[in-house]
Design brief:
Elements (H helix, E strand, L loop, with lengths): L2 H9 L6 E5 L5 E5 L7 E4 L11 H17 L5 H8 L14 H15 L5 H20 L6 H8 L7 H22 L9 H8 L13 H14 L1 H13 L9 E5 L6 E5 L13 E2 L5 E2 L5 E2 L25 H11 L1 H14 L7 H12 L4 H8 L3 H7 L5 H13 L3
Antiparallel strand pairs: 1-2, 2-3, 4-5, 5-6, 7-8
Length: about 400
């Protein structure tokens, strides 16, 4: 080990649990390992690399990180890095990487080196917001991350959740620019600024669910105008799948039953709640007249009617396409949206078919572990993010209790 490397490593010798080293690509890595908390590591931003010419910079950065955490032990090492970056003047003023190139690097990091998220997830959760940032940067009106972010959230000023997603995506993009490509620390957005820009959270809007009879009425209304779209609604209703999963369905033999069955190959790997491929189990609906309706498309899936796109091919279905079809071509849907919002304040959206499947499964007494296995989530996610009952189901069950009393 060279003398300068010994001096650099020795800087952290007296800091319990700290070390300074390099990674396989020659980047400077600071590590913090302390009892009763997870191990942490960060890479110092370029152009600083593991080289003698940067000895003073490496040591100064490390000292500032240690000082920040010594003053605030509850702060994370990443948080300390974000606080330290704006105080350092070594960021490579003549960096040659463009913002567009930073976006491509950020994309590779998320899709290949980090979470391995899917392209569709990147486009929906990151790119749509980063594109706004790139347009704003092209104006030349912004010189720091806070002001840029304030401009980026303007399209979602009245939408708390989307505003939060935008703040998260653009902040991570800017952090990548600073830590990976040597952009000035002024582009980082502090936690306090992000909190202010996010604003006060609005009361969560409760999602509604539909009764079996309401779904039967809606399917009939859709079928009057387009039987192919009625097939889509029936499929979503029966299986409880996400609309996007329509592109991932196959017929496969279930090794347990020995019978053919619809199978979703959808494999959601990114985010907090990954989804594994699974067999689908249609649930019956019961009309108010007692009639049973079980829509099982196993034998007809390849030949069933399906909406055709403008290109003459089988249409790719997602939540947006379902919502547009219902809003533009099904008056009953719009009537219910207005009525439900007025009477209960709840939100009717295309995801209602999945939420309603979840409630139906509970009403049928299916154990939660079994239900979630077929539904494609965990009991924790199910209880947190999905409706598990409804006003109609609650009233029905208690009526049964009262009816059995002498």
């Amino acid at each position: 080990m060279a003398l300068w490397e010994q001096r650099t490593a020795g800087v952290a010798a007296s800091w319990k649990g700290w070390s300074i080293t390099k990674d396989q690509r020659g980047r400077v890595m600071v590590l913090r390992r302390e009892s009763a908390r997870p191990a942490e590591k960060v890479l110092l931003p370029r152009p600083i690399v593991w080289a003698e010419e940067y000895e003073d910079d490496i040591q100064n950065w490390a000292k500032q990180l240690w000082k920040t955490l010594d003053n605030d032990p509850d702060k994370t090492l990443r948080g300390a890095l974000e606080d330290t970056a704006p105080k350092s003047d070594r960021h490579g003023e003549a960096f040659a990487v463009t913002w567009a190139q930073v976006e491509q690097s950020f994309k590779r990091d998320l899709m290949e080196d980090n979470n391995e998220i899917a392209l569709k997830t990147y486009e929906a959760s990151y790119l749509k917001f980063i594109q706004v940032a790139l347009k704003e940067l092209a104006t030349g009106h912004h010189s720091n991350g806070r002001d840029l972010l304030r401009a980026c959230i303007a399209p979602w000023r009245d939408k708390y959740a989307s505003r939060g997603y935008c703040i998260d995506a653009v902040s991570k993009f800017l952090l990548h620019a600073v830590t990976e490509h040597g952009y000035p620390g002024a582009w980082l957005v502090s936690a306090n600024d992000k909190k202010k820009l996010r604003g006060k959270k609005q009361p969560k809007q409760e999602k509604t669910v539909l009764t079996d009879q309401q779904i039967l009425d809606l399917v009939a209304a859709v079928e009057e105008k387009n039987s192919a779209w009625a097939s889509v609604i029936k499929l979503l209703t029966a299986t409880g799948i996400r609309a996007v999963e329509c592109q991932y369905l196959v017929v496969k033999r279930n090794p347990v039953t020995g019978k053919d069955q619809l199978y979703s190959t959808y494999n959601k790997t990114g985010g907090k709640n990954p989804t594994k491929p699974r067999f689908l189990f249609p649930l019956p609906l019961t009309g108010d007249d007692g009639s049973q309706h079980l829509w099982d498309f196993t034998t007809t899936f390849k030949t069933m009617e399906w909406p055709i796109g403008d290109n003459g091919e089988r249409m790719a279905i997602d939540g947006a396409a379902v919502g547009k079809r219902l809003r533009d071509h099904t008056p009953l849907w719009n009537e219910w949206r207005a009525k439900i919002k007025e009477e209960t304040g709840e939100w009717l959206r295309p995801y209602v078919f999945r939420d309603s499947w979840n409630v139906r499964a509970d009403n049928l007494g299916i154990p939660i572990g079994v239900k979630c296995h077929a539904f494609g989530n965990t009991p924790e996610t199910n209880s947190r993010a999905y409706r598990t009952s409804s006003d109609a189901a609650t009233a029905k069950h208690f009526d049964a209790v009262y009816g059995g009393m002498p």
